[in-house]
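New to this. Explain these tokens.
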Amino acid sequence: MPVDRSLYIIPNETPVCQLDAADAFKTLSEKEKKYSHYVAKASFDGALAVFLQVSPESAPIFYVLYRLFKSESVEQLKEKALSVGFTDAEWQAFLVYAAAFYSNSGNYKGFGDTKIVPGVEQTKIRALLEKSAVGTDEKVMKTWESVEKVIGSLESNELQLGFGDKGVTCYHSSNVTKADAEKIDRFFKQRNVESWNSRLFKEVGSDGKTTYTIKLASSEEGIVSEAVEFEGDVVQIVRGDYALIMKRTHEWLDKAIPTAANKNQEEMLRKYVEHFKKGDIALHKDGSRYWIKDVGPAVESYIGFIENYRDPAGTRSEFEGFVAAVNKETSKKFQTLVANAENILKRLPWGTDYEKDTFLKPDFTALDVIAFGSSGIPAGINIPNYDDIRQNEGFKNVSLGNVISAQPKQKMNFLDEHDEELMFKYHKDSFEVQVGLHELLGHGSGKLFQKNLDGTFNFDTNKVKDIITGAPIATWYEPGETWSSKFGPLASAYEECRAEAVGYVLCCDADILEIFGYTGDLAQEVKYVNWLSEIRAGLLALEFYQAEQKKWGQAHCYARYVLTKVVLEAGQGFVKIEETKGEDGKPDLHFKLDRNLIDSVGRPAVNTFLAKLQAYKSTGDFEGGKRLFESYGVVGDTELHWRDICIARRKPRRLFVQPNTVEKNGEISLVTYSSDVSGVIQSFVERYEKSAVEDLYACWKDDQKWF
């Protein structure tokens, strides 16, 4: 079946939203501005590593685009592009490609994991390069030649991220299979080591012997542990992955130490500096311990290898770093939610045995992002992701206010006029409620049943019963097992689904809505819009289902689709999806949710499902959890038909243009850019010094032997 190229081209009408931090930045003291600047630089420079994690061609494409847009202005380049045969639409498509490539930290979507190709032939891009100021630069042109064939190609194994035989990734060398990754997971478990900041490379010698090299991200290079035999193969751990980039990261963090607000921030930064030097995850965990103690700072940040959504094996993590100013007014709502959390947790459908022994009250702040380096910017975060710290020491929640409020006004598909009006009016309010509940009481709830090294358990084996069977607990997490290692590639979608479901269920309670400032009829509207928005999102998620591979790419989309299937199964006319004809005469859908049935049909259905999700998660029963989850994740003929309509009518996802912090004569200022694709490009070109881009180039050259 021929590939529909349009699915992989970012549309020319893609909206660009300003990540507005100007007012928030003004509230900071000079010292806080300096701290923000250094952490922002560390975050953005460190995020160059993401281009090396995504695909073999992402780093060289970055190099070529950076050198091109650095050499001449967008206006000058447009003139040259038109002179070599670009149409106006193709020039816009090229700018959109560059902006989307930068925003996704590579040529695969940060949200959706599918390839991004330019909406203009590569022969024309070559002609533009040759005509431009970099046309005589041999290094640029040779780098272009290395990616020219792959930048626009859509072979079946290039369409999405995945293991080397079915997809693209740089978390592993291209010869690593799922079986290889699972073998190394067993090696990690045996040694009680975690793989967050690692990559896996495989070599087969002439004697047929396989050597696996686990490479840790660090500026220092060398052997961490000598080669050992494991299951008939050889495994060695070395450090020095992305060495030049990690060096830049810890040098910026080192500069931030004198500007820290308190001892916790200082110690946190020192631990991070050592972590990025040595690659030891224990140092990052220690930094995270100081971070959770730093309660209520004016400037919030986090940095490291954090989220494992995009590793095909589900265990290695993408680099991300952010710095943000705390919005004290909005934060008050979240702090009230935290204060009431212990009582609210009792409403969740699993009882005290399945909840942490003591609820470790986290810091929960509303932030305006100043800088966010990664493949995408979330609306809320619950971190750290280390199970041992989250369960026993605590965590933090953040809601990213300027991300939530940056909404382009686009037609909302599949809704009638009245519902669309309500969505425009209350979506920001409902989303803030959902993010708050999802992060604090979703990701922040529930206990993992663990066996300790000394053979004891962290739960009463005589008293605690299985929620589903009523029998004694029969499975748990062995020493060395974590949530991610046990549930693997399913872990992210499963956990997002659990957190989403908590939000759906708890947004029904009047006292919770009141914490956010909504009472009476207004509270009812916010509750309705949250259900409407989230359940409809499960329908729209079908766009991200990879029909040829019969697999879900994006964790949040898979999660929402599963919950939409749960409420469709509940029946009683609660949710209706009907095929219609649009005003253009083409197939359309009509989505309707009966607001009068939220409490009597929707909530009980989600609640029952949520209890099962928690049961399998707490007991580490991967097989049971997988069976349950995948039974709702099935995409049948009806849903495939809906998917075709969703794709035909899809709206482009917004891109963000972020500001830059600049230091001049010892003072820090915030530079903003226009809300269009040229603004995104300019922000990236000005964000990076040439030396940083040369470091990325050197790391790429070093990686080439593996891909």
In short: The first strand starts at residue 16 and ends at 18. The mean pLDDT is 95. The chain has 27 helices and 17 strands.
